[in-house]
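Morning run. Coffee first, then this:
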Amino acid sequence: MNRTVVLAVLLLLIPGCLEDVELAGVETTDIDFDSDSVYSNVTFNIYVGEDLENATANYSITIQINHTAAPLHADNFVKHVNAGNYNMSTFHRIIDDFMIQGGDFENHDGTGGYAADWYGYCNGQSASNSAACDQTEWTVPDEADNGLKHYPCVISMAKTSQPNTGGSQFFLTPDDINQHTWLDGVHTVFGDITEGCEHVTTISQVSTSGGDKPVTPVVIYSATVN
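And here it is:
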């Protein structure tokens, strides 16, 4: 069977998956077909400093995105990466022993960001079609009951306190935490950090000011699907 057909069948068999979702922008060569699950890998190149030339630290982090467990979140995230939306975006909120949060490509302060495609929701409310709201109000429905937990070294979707309000923001957990059980079943875990989780831990320990904002900017200067 053609690999593209296999992928489409996998997505249709997942409970709650929208039947018309497509992995647009994700080439089959970007996806691992060697197991029962479908993955793609994303690498963040990060610097700490006012600009890359004068950075005080540089890090590389690779995340394995789980398209089987969280097909809509995985699709949304990879589309943001392929669109270049995370390039030169910041980790705007950092809390030691908890997580580092980024992905606000609109305002870079945690107040912006929206879904990369139409997934049937406007600001957390189900809608009949994409014309029901402005693109900046598109959100991703929760897939938080997929069995993935908030262990160390995972990526999860940031959202408001309301259901189905994920957009572009995400958070990474460091390697020195215990399981964040209170987030399980609420926020959607959609991948694992497979390389460089120690860098997430280092970043989680940077100095912050009001609103948990890093005193020195922590910037994703490139994000690529490998």
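The helical segments are 3-13, 71-82, 197-204. Good start to the day.
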